[in-house]
Amino acid sequence: MRNLxxxxxxxxxxxxxxxxxxxxxxxxxxxxxxxxxxxTMGLSVMFVITxxxxxxxxxxxxxxxxxRVPVYITSIATIVxxxxxxxxxxxxxxxxxxxxxxxxxxxxxxxxxxAEVFASKNKVIPSFFxxxxxxxxxxxxxxxxxxxxxxxxxxxxxxHTILGAWYNPALIMIxxxxxxxxxxxxxxxxxxxxxxxxxxxxxxxxx
Length: 207
Known about the structure:
single chain, 207 residues, mainly alpha, two-stranded antiparallel sheet, 2 strands, 72% helix, flat, Electron transport complex subunit E
């Protein structure tokens, strides 16, 4: 059980897809203008990466290594199509908001990478937790970016006014360049924190 927890939490912080691995940044720049859009995209990716990890793990001994990548992409495309159809049927406004970026989940590097690096070499349950952890880390990063962009770009959170009429919204925060700058500062801040933490550990070891 402890091993499964370690597999899960790895995707939250240590190997966070956006803040650490800097993968699949396209939706982080495009659809995080509101918390709802960011959360929906995060959940969609979490479902796809978890379901695909399970699928790849189940068939890993049946697939010829020479055709493994086309098989993985077919699996991802099938799951993404399912997610698109569900969203279109039950949440048409969100489906319209996410637009083409939902279909682009098929080519997200993080999903194919986890299939190749982890799911193709491990059993179903560890692969499930690996996908769930990576998806949770992706969703967490998307929501954090969405909260900051919606607050600074519109003065609202989940559509509710937070900063009041006195606040003059920063237009750049609802544009892709604003998201790019924000993600850059957040990655930089995380690197500085990790460097200070490592330095403190070295000082403790030296004593």
